Amino acid sequence: MVDFIQWYVKDHYWPAFNIADAAVVGGAIGIGLFGLFSGKPRPAAG
Question: Which residues belong to the active site?
Answer without folding.
Answer: 3, 21
